[in-house]
Amino acid sequence: xxxxxxxxxxxxxxxxxxxxxxxxxxxxxxxxxxxxxxxxxxxxxxxxxxxxxxxxxxxxxxxxxxxxxxxxxxxxxxxxxxxxxxxxxxxxxxxxxxxxxxxxxxxxxxxxxxxxxxxxxxxxxxxxxxxxxxxxxxxxxxxxxxxxxxxxxxxxxxxxxxxxxxxxxxxxxxxxxxxxxxxxxxxxxxxxxxxxxxxxxxxxxxxxxxxxxxxxxxxxxxxxxxxxxxxxxxxxxxxxxxxxxxxxxxxxxxxxxxxxxxxxxxxxxxxxxxxxxxxxxxxxxxxxxxxxxxxxxxxxxxxxxxxxxxxxxxxxxxxxxxxxxxxxxxxxxxxxxxxxxxxxxxxxxxxxxxxxxxxxxxxxxxxxxxxxxxxxxxxxxxxxxxxxxxxxxxxxxxxxxxxxxxxxxxxxxxxxxxxxxxxxxxxxxx
Length: 430
Fold this sequence. Notes:
- The chain is of the alpha/beta class.
- The chain has helices at about 10-15, 55-60, 125-135, 175-185, 190-215, 220-245, 265-280, 295-300, 310, 320-345, 400-410; strands at about 45-50, 65, 85-90, 90, 145, 175, 290, 355-365, 375-380, 390, 400.
- The protein has a 9-stranded mixed beta sheet with strand order 2-10-3-9-8-1-7-5-6, with helices on both faces. Strands 4-11 form a two-stranded parallel sheet.
- Helix 5 packs antiparallel against helix 6.
């Protein structure tokens, strides 16, 4: 006679995820209790979300430190989660020089124009840094997501928020259709076809590497730096091919979540992407995600005909100010729904995905052209982080990199510094 299965994995719990998965990664939890080993602790996840163009100065930002008892108008959609997030004041990205290009160094905090002899040079972003440690045994070390908007969307150079070790932009997965295909798309490629495809890529890479090596000793010191960056990019491609080959024969998880249709934009695009992020984390395809969110299409989906750049410069215009306030609330309304998804998504041990996640959500500028004192919201269930507070840091212009170093360390990532960081943010620790 069969013994009862683990009571934490019930039909109710299974369906309560909101994603209605058919397969979970830790299926050993379905083994009878007497035969089941102790479940491993769910891994820590990290999510980095970036929104462009800032928020309305007088109605979004808290003015006082302390418990978030009463939320501002702009934060009011987060009322049901006010004990599960904190907002920080006095953070500045010292690497940012372009008010509407702060996302270029948002997750790197590098001084992108201050390296002698180089017009532009970035460094690795904290999402990729986290992925190298948290996601090394997963299908994707990290997932960099970009919007389908052709416009930079108030974000600056690059296509996602992610930058590799050579300081080059990571294109990112664009839109929910492409993301769904990466997560759950099943290949009909035969083993022979797959091997032929990988061999072709290897052959092309060998030719490119040979050509690049032939230039060694024939270039200036400045060009040598460029070649070194190029070699780093090639090494990353090589490592990617190795990982592709390792995972090629391992089937992707299945889900009864239907593939999204083309043409989804604005609010619907973001909400669907949030759901797919939760699925990516729950099925353990990755532990780290960054998301450069669309801006213009959100405003359009709200029925407003404003250019996002013009809207951010609301100035003394009551009409634009009101529209900007509505946009603020729409952004935090979507964030609140994202937290809902993370809270109702179940881990194999019965805990929620939110319990094991560090979620950061912010923007590259405060408002207008103000790149100092950028808002940073941190949410999640890790007990080591102080939630439910408006945190005013004692030093103005505290490096934004200090926040990233703090969050990385709390996630178990070994890191000494990042970009312009000078330490950690102890005020965020419980």
